[in-house]
């Protein structure tokens, strides 16, 4: 039986989701939820020399949310913060053949992108704190504007 | 009430929306009635007729239209009183829905009567609308909110109520007559009687009960009762709050404005009579009149016929669903203790995935926490799927749902 969303790739990715778990002493820990459906996840990252040296996630999500979160964590693990900041939704969706959700399912696209939203939120907060500690508010604004 | 001979067989033809198709030509199968119900043509026509022929503000002008509008609006109040066996029409207050009704009580009664150290008791299977207003009130007053727990069968643990009542500090017990997630019908009379003996007020959330079973408010003997028109074939934006007159007389107004006053001076105002003291501003006239047509429709069928139809359908559905691979069904198996609401989950498949798959077959079921996150915590799930029935649903609808759910089990290799 074939299905436009629930392909074997997605069901397998969700069932065998990578990087699920909890990190001890993460540098970034960000929680976010989708109030409409109740999907909720926490992303945790270790940052060394502006590189995401480790990443884990935990939470409660549907198949689409889990599969996309798994893909996202694999994409940014070991990459630098700039790469993570610039990560585009299309890159995640295309890994799973879910680009059609953008146009066809305004509800389910939110499930697919919850982890990306959480990632950006976490990075934003992390960078804002770093900048606050060292440089001026103008720098903070500039950094923040580059994020989105 | 009419005889139960009115046939439900051809009832779907009264509901224009049930004739349409969704998702590339699939006939709509609507199974989200606990959320809101569809409207028969009689209700749609009543609203349209009001705007076409009678539209005017009520309780004010002397011209013919205003008189007609006022009469139709007030006739609905009488109809509701009769429908629920309410003795005094001035105890029937029009509100926006159950949520506004409960908030009105929390504000206009609660702020007056709840003091520091008092206890308000609710239950683990309440809708958020019967939890959050009490959190707000108890926080403001330094009072306490306590919960009656739910057992594994989905029924209330009433011995917990006994121990709360024993403290002597309980001022209000508030609970739904039927759970919107598990379908459990509360032991309403028993709870009310216990509270009465302890001199404690009771509020019944009738959002799920009034649409699906016969309710007699006089016989129940509670103090507050709230429900929504849109869950019983009526329009959105109309609900009823009933308050026992002796209690209503101790309450301050909710909203201030037009209609609720007797005389307004620069610094002093006197209040209008009951129930108008609690109906400030121009109300939802058209939809109240639409609601009137919904009550006529339900009365013609008979609430006992509706209840029996839903018991039969629930029995049929539970039997078939329990045979699907990987499914967990929640709630009691005793059909006399539950309404036509079936919550379920599939092994490790998230409810949103299930709802998306059955939606492609044109079937509308709900997935999520159903505004009952406290209950979700109790069940130790993040969400459930929920199919809920009404008078226009048939065994053919259930068969379609079953077929679609079998697809889920197959896709996910359960
Ligand atoms: C048991 C229960 N209480 C309260 C409500 C709230 O009703 P409304 O949204 O019409 O105010 C609902 C509806 O979702 C319900 O099922």
How does this model look, in words?
The complex is a heterodimer of chains A (148) and B (414). Chain A is α+β, with helices and mostly antiparallel strands and 148 residues long. Chain A has one domain: Sufe protein. Chain: A (Alpha-Beta Complex). Chain A has helices at residues 8-15, 63-76, 81-86, 89-96, 100-104, 108-134, 137-147, and strands at residues 28-33, 40-48, 51-60. In chain A, helix 2 packs across helix 4 (89-96), helix 2 (63-76) runs parallel beside helix 6 and helix 6 runs antiparallel to helix 7. The longest helix of chain A is centred in the C-terminal third of the chain and has 27 residues, at 108-134. Chain A starts with 7 loop residues before the first helix and ends with a helix. Chain B has 414 residues and is α/β, with parallel strands linked by helices. Chain B folds into two domains: 8-30 and 302-411, Aspartate Aminotransferase, domain 1 (Alpha-Beta Complex); 45-299, Aspartate Aminotransferase, domain 2. Chain B has helices spanning 41-54, 64-83, 98-113, 132-141, 158-166, 188-197, 217-220, 245-248, 285-301, 303-321, 351-359, 373-379, 395-411, and strands at 21-22, 26-27, 29-30, 92-95, 119-123, 144-148, 170-176, 201-205, 224-228, 239-243, 261-264, 269-271, 327-329, 341-346, 363-364, 366-368, 384-388. In chain B, the strands form five sheets. Chain B has a seven-stranded mixed sheet, with helices on both faces. Chain B has a four-stranded antiparallel sheet with strand order 13-14-17-16, with helices on one face. A two-stranded antiparallel ribbon of chain B has the order 1-2. The structure holds pyridoxal-5'-phosphate (PLP).
What are the key terms here?
heterodimer, A: 148 residues, alpha+beta, Sufe protein. Chain: A, 3-stranded antiparallel beta sheet, 7 helices, 3 strands, 53% helix, globular, B: 414 residues, alpha/beta, Aspartate Aminotransferase, domain 1, Aspartate Aminotransferase, domain 2, 2 domains, 7-stranded mixed beta sheet, 4-stranded antiparallel beta sheet, 13 helices, 38% helix, disordered N terminus, binds pyridoxal-5'-phosphate
């Amino acid at each position: 039986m074939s299905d436009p969303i629930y392909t074997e790739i997605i069901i397998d990715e969700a069932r065998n989701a990578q990087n699920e778990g909890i990190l001890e002493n993460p540098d970034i820990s960000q929680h976010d939820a989708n109030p409409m459906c109740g999907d909720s996840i926490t992303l945790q990252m270790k940052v060394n020399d502006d590189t995401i040296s480790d990443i884990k996630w935990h939470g409660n999500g549907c198949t689409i949310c889990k599969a996309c979160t798994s893909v996202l964590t694999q994409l940014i693990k070991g990459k630098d913060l700039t790469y993570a900041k610039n990560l585009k939704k299309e890159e995640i969706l295309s890994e799973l053949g879910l680009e059609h959700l953008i146009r066809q399912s305004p509800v389910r696209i939110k499930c697919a992108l919850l982890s990306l939203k959480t990632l950006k939120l976490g990075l934003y907060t992390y960078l804002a704190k770093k900048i606050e500690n060292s440089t001026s508010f103008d720098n903070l604004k500039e950094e923040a504007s580059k994020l989105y | 009430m009419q005889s139960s001979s009115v046939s439900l067989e051809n009832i779907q033809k009264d509901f224009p929306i049930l004739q349409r198709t969704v998702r590339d030509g699939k006939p709509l199968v609507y199974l989200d009635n606990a959320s809101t119900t569809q409207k028969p043509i009689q209700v749609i026509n009543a609203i349209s007729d009001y705007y076409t022929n009678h539209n005017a503000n009520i309780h004010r002008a002397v011209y013919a239209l205003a008189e007609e509008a006022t009469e139709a609006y007030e006739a609905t109040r009488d109809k509701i009183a009769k429908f629920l066996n309410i003795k005094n029409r001035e105890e029937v207050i029009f509100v926006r829905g159950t949520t506004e009704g409960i908030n009105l009580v929390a504000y206009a009664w609660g702020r007056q009567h709840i003091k520091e150290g008092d206890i308000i008791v609710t239950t683990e299977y309440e809708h958020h609308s019967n939890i959050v207003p009490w959190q707000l009130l108890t926080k403001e007053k330094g009072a306490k909110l306590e919960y009656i727990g739910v057992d594994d069968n989905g029924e209330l643990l009433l011995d917990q109520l006994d121990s709360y009542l024993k403290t002597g500090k309980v001022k209000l017990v508030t609970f739904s007559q039927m759970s919107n997630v598990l379908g459990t019908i509360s032991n309403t009379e028993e709870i009310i009687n216990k509270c009465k003996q302890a001199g404690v007020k009771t509020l019944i959330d009738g959002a799920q009960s009034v649409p699906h079973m016969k309710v007699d408010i006089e016989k129940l003997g509670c103090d507050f009762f709230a429900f929504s028109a849109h869950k019983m074939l009526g329009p959105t934006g109309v609900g009823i709050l009933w308050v026992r007159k002796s209690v209503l007389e101790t309450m301050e107004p909710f909203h201030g404005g037009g209609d609720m006053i007797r005389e307004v001076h620069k610094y002093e105002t006197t209040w209008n009579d009951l129930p108008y003291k609690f109906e400030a501003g121009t109300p939802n006239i058209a939809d109240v009149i639409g609601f009137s047509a919904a009550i006529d429709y339900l009365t013609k069928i008979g609430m006992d016929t509706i209840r029996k139809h839903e018991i039969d359908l629930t029995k049929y559905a539970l039997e078939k669903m329990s045979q699907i691979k990987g499914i967990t069904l929640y709630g009691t198996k005793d059909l006399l203790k539950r309404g036509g609401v079936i919550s379920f989950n599939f092994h490790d498949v998230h409810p949103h995935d299930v709802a998306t798959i059955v939606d492609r077959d044109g079937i509308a079921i709900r997935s999520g926490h159903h505004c009952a996150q406290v209950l979700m915590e109790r069940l130790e799930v993040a969400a459930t799927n929920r199919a809920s029935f009404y008078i226009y649903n048939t065994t053919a609808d259930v068969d379609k749902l079953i077929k679609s759910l079998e697809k889920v089990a197959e896709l996910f290799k359960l």
